[in-house]
From TrEMBL:
This is Phosphate-specific transport system accessory protein PhoU. It is found in: Cytoplasm. Signal peptide: none annotated. It comes from the Bacteria. It comes from Comamonas avium. Residues 22-108, 129-211 form the PhoU domain. SUPFAM superfamilies: PhoU-like. Coiled coil: none annotated. Plays a role in the regulation of phosphate uptake. Belongs to the PhoU family. PANTHER family: PHOSPHATE-SPECIFIC TRANSPORT SYSTEM ACCESSORY PROTEIN PHOU. Keywords: Cytoplasm, Phosphate transport, Transport. The gene is phoU. Homodimer.
């Protein structure tokens, strides 16, 4: 079999993996969208849809991981190709964890609804951060599809805004619980929900860092923004 034929097969396998990762990202995006809808509308139907999608996300992560391991074992890729496969593996893991956070959000919403405190809590103030996190994932998937390091850089900066929203919401929620101790139990559910939103933003940031690693071959985790900007051509 010619080297060209082997190369064509390998490229086909890489394209398939890329398509599968993007498909997984689309499902996770739907999960988060439904979780945000469940939060804003206190919809049990949306909660159930998030749970149903969770099974698909978990199954796809296992399938993609198996395909990646198979390619590495059979092809023994060169350094750059191996970097791409490892980046896809880490992106897949981050997407699965985002799905877990969306599922966690849905469970917390269900708990709040069942407690009967849904209309008394300041959940509307969390909607902004939740929608920002959902939009950040969408941008991360788009940047991954185009291997756009400039867009990835923008995602790193936007994640800081979600962190600021989270910190502000926690302060307001603590004040709310102090003023009305009867809402402490439901408010703690809302606090865990807010943390899940923040974690979705963190995982989108991880995807952005992996895009830069994939294109530039530089691990920019834990680096200052000045160092990161200099790494992105």
């Amino acid at each position: 079999m010619s080297d060209k034929h082997l190369s064509t097969q390998f490229d086909s396998e890489l394209n398939r993996i890329s398509s599968r990762v993007m498909e997984l990202g689309g499902i996770v995006e739907r999960q988060i969208s439904q979780a945000v809808f469940a939060l804003t509308q206190f919809s049990l139907e949306a909660v159930e849809q998030v749970a149903a999608l969770e099974e698909r996300v978990n199954a796809m992560e296992v399938e993609i991981d198996y395909e990646l391991s198979s390619i590495i074992g059979r092809r023994q890729p060169t350094a750059r190709d191996l970097r791409m496969l490892m980046a896809f593996s880490k992106v897949t893991a981050n997407l699965e964890r985002m799905g877990d956070e969306a599922h966690k959000m849905a469970r917390m919403v269900k708990s709040i609804i069942e407690s009967g405190a849904s209309r008394a809590l300041p959940s509307g103030e969390l909607r902004v951060a939740a929608e920002m996190a959902s939009a950040l994932l969408r941008k991360a998937l788009d940047a991954l599809a185009r291997l756009d390091t400039k867009a990835a850089l923008g995602i790193l900066k936007e994640d800081d805004l979600i962190d600021d929203e989270f910190d502000g919401f926690v302060r307001k929620l603590i004040t709310y619980m102090m003023e009305d101790p009867r809402t402490i139990s439901a408010s703690l559910d809302l606090l865990f929900l807010a943390k899940a939103v923040e974690r979705i933003g963190d995982h989108s940031k991880n995807v952005a860092e992996l895009i830069i690693y994939l294109v530039e071959g530089k691990d920019i985790r834990h680096q200052s923004m000045d160092v990161i900007e200099s790494a992105v051509r």
